[in-house]
Amino acid sequence: MGEDVVVRVAGLAMHFPITSGLFLQRKIGLVKAVDGVSFAVRKGETLGLVGESGCGKTTVGKCVLQLYRPTSGSVFFEGQDLCRMSEGQLRQVRPRMQLIFQDPGESLDPRFTAADIVGEPMWIQGKAQGPAYRERIAELLSIVGLAPYMADRYPHEFSGGQRQRLGVARALALEPTFIVCDEPVSALDVSIQAQIINLLDDLQQKYGIAYLFIAHDLSVVRHLSDRVAVMYLGKIAEIAGRDALYQEPLHPYTQALLSAVPIPDPAVEAKRVPIILKGEVPSPINPPSGCVFHPRCPKAFGPCPTVVPVLADVSQDHQVSCLLYPPSWPPSAPP
Ligand code: SF4
């Protein structure tokens, strides 16, 4: 494993059983929420993880943090496989891996003051003692752009953007090296979204934190991400450096997602033809055979319904899971 890698995920799968009968003891199927996902996040970088609702991206984030114990696969954090650790061992590691939630209104306990919310991780770790504790709360509030005098206010006294700043301050309390940001701006007004993204960017520059930034929209992750992974139905469709992915998307699904992202140049925007995908995202209970994208893919050809593509290198730091690109399929396949 490269020394600059903070998190490496290999062959991650999370299958939830579907049960029926008295006491729900009979297993009648599986929801394959995540099915064979691999990626790495390097020190101080942001990996954007993008896909439609229900594609498994939030489940990936929870598996990485071991909030769900994966069905199979490995999650290496700073070189140690979290999936092989006991709960006691995980408690030692957890302060360095944190989560920022989607909806700051729902994730903050309304009975707690801002100081309680930001300080709770320190209580849990037994680091909430003496005047240094209050000083650390004030410091964390000012790091995220809130005034220290706000420490005694309750969540309802803050705006949506300020509540998300509280969520960020709480995530920073134990000086993590890695944060999963689970759609941290999707519940906020567009005007506030840029402020939170800029705040996360500044914190990364200052503290060298690595982010897994989950979003359903490619335009949201563009500014912050160094690399971007696109997920579809529990699998990674494509993963690449930001510029390569936005300028030369290879997977037909990435191409369709990007075709829906507005371009600020009206002349270019007027000439673009959006790619409309047919049908709905299939159920992860009974995913399509072969390439899981084939029923909706505008470029599907002969082997797509039967051959499962693998995520393979097409160039340096650019991987795609599509039979159009060798070595997923013999070079004699149609272009
Ligand atoms: Fe489309 Fe076939 Fe590529 Fe899947 S493997 S994305 S169906 S062309």
Mean pLDDT: 90
In DSSP terms, counting alpha (H) and pi (I) runs of 4 or more, how many helices? 11
Q: Which fold name is given in CATH as the topology of the domain at 5-19 and 31-108 and 177-184 and 213-320?
A: Rossmann fold
Radius of gyration: 21 Å
Count of individual beta strands: 12
Distinct small molecules? iron/sulfur cluster
Uncertain spans: 331-335
Distance between the termini: 34 Å
Topology, pairings included?
Layout: E1 5-20, E2 26-42, E3 46-50, H1 57-64, E4 72-77, E5 80-81, H2 87-93, E6 97-100, H3 104-107, H4 114-124, H5 130-143, H6 160-172, E7 178-182, H7 190-207, E8 210-215, H8 218-221, E9 227-232, E10 235-241, H9 242-247, H10 252-259, H11 266-271, E11 312-315, E12 318-320
Parallel strand pairs: 3-8, 3-9, 6-7, 7-8
Antiparallel strand pairs: 1-2, 1-4, 4-5, 9-10, 10-12, 11-12
Helix pairs in contact: 4-5, 4-6, 6-7
The structure holds iron/sulfur cluster.
Notes on the structure:
This protein is α/β, with parallel strands linked by helices and 335 residues long. It has a domain at 5-19 and 31-108 and 177-184 and 213-320: Rossmann fold. Helices cover 30% and strands 24% of the residues. It has eleven helices and twelve strands. The strands form two sheets. Strands 6-7-8-3-9-10-12-11 form an eight-stranded mixed sheet, with helices on both faces. Strands 2-1-4-5 form a four-stranded antiparallel sheet. Helix 4 crosses helix 5 (130-143) and helix 4 (114-124) packs parallel to helix 6. It starts with a strand and ends in a 15-residue tail after the last strand. The structure holds iron/sulfur cluster (SF4). Iron/sulfur cluster (SF4) binds next to loops. Residues 251-252, 291, 293-294, 297, 299-300, 304, 309, 322-324 line the site of iron/sulfur cluster.
